[in-house]
Amino acid sequence: MDSRKESPELNRNLYAAVEPYSSGFLRVSDLHTLYWEQSGNPSGYPVVFLHGGPGAGTSPSNRKFFDPEFYKIILFDQRGAGKSTPHACLEENTTWDLVSDIEKLREHLNIPEWQVFGGSWGSTLALAYSQSHPDKVTGIILRGIFLLRKKELDWFYEGGAAAIYPDAWEPFRDFIPEDERYNFINAYRKRLNSSDANVKVMAAKIWTTWELMTAHLIQNEENIKRGESDSFSLAFARIENHYFFNKGFLPSDSYLLDNVDKIRHIKTVIVQGRYDMCCPMMSAWDLHKAWPEAEFKVVPDAGHSANEAGIAAELVCANEKFKNILKTGDASC
Hints:
This protein has helices at residues 95-108, 121-132, 150-157, 166-174, 184-192, 197-212, 221-224, 230-245, 255-258, 281-290, 309-328; strands at 22-27, 33-40, 45-50, 71-76, 114-119, 137-143, 268-273, 295-299. It is an alpha/beta fold. The longest helix has 20 residues, at 309-328.
């Protein structure tokens, strides 16, 4: 699990920024339309990027994990997030709607099969999609594992992470009256769906800021400022809270672990920051134990964010490994 012993031949540096060569909107229901884009090599190997949150949307920096000369890089904003419409909408917005959307996008872009890349909530969605459509997935890269189990939600919203970040936790806690502090997800749900727009926006900003303040090993002020945006916060907080209140719309608490056999044969790399406060390492460890065939990388000096140097290096390196396999059939590095 030592992330510092890779072959020096493999690139570990983020690639230069690239712009999309095509983009558009795909109507996936009578209500929802998704923004999508393609960048990199139009004839390259397809990889789909699944963003976190849920509700965070994509950003241009997401393209930099992939060699643009080799990969056809597909990004899309999930229902209600980013440029997708309607913004911050919770109707017809479940894990299984998103799994269906990924398939609709694959078919729309005429892609027979693709590599799947997801971090945080994106790792949840990557597992759910791959377990539903294993014949369409050639490889999986996961980061900051989130299995949407009760103990994970309790860790972040009922006092676990608060023991490490009490200064960040208190504003989140104090927004809720004392008599409702026995269940913060429920308490915020009421306010994020309030008829009072000011209450809704304030709740969204506080919810979002709590997560952004814990996302890096060393707090990142630029990242935290994203929580000041009404638009970003509303989608991020409302959609996250909706999914967490509904336990990810998964049939059971251990559903994603219980269905690992469906994807055990797919080449997979799991990257986890040792000091991840949002998605603590217990989940990555449980997935590793259930799926020892997947390569498991622990970054010893990182938290949750994909943009931390050690995690970014491992993610780029994982893509480089897959590239070598696809080019030569050689899995060695």
